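To: structure desk
From: M.T.
Subject: fold request, one chain
Message: Could you run this one when you get a chance? Sequence is below, nothing fancy, just the single chain.
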Amino acid sequence: REPEGPLVLPGDYRIVLTVDGKSYSRRLKVRMDPRVHITKTALKDQLSLAIGIWNAMADENALMKEVDTLNAQISGLEKGSGANADAIAALSAFGKKLESFRRKLNTGELSGLESDVMSADREPTSQMMESFKTLATELSGAKKDWNAIKMKDLSGLNRQLKKMGMTGLSPVA
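Reply: Done. Structure tokens follow.
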């Protein structure tokens, strides 16, 4: 799946593979393409930005996984024999809130930015830096929104379900 993630800076590395408790290691030298002329500082800035984007994508994916986990649980409860009309209505309303939240996250903008940043050995542009800053701020807001949804809406739904004798939902699989 694209993007594949940040690369590494030129240098000497030791690669370790562990299988069934046994480790194998090899040395690896990563060299710069001799046709490319870029400062070490610019390469470090590029890698730093790429890692920041990659970490933000991991946070975004974790949020989406929690939403997907809850959606799967909702689907199971709605199809189960123990769900009455009130439970189905409450589950459906919460499901709509989840889908609305998920649509905000699933933009692919971080992925596109990471691809742009890592597409060539070059110093990140000010537009790349500004774009990441904006996307990181939006993601931070989404995390706060998600925590509020879990604390308020999910907790309230779980209280309702418990009163109906049903199992509550959990964003952790």
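Reply (cont.): The longest helix spans residues 40-79. Let me know if you need anything else for the meeting.
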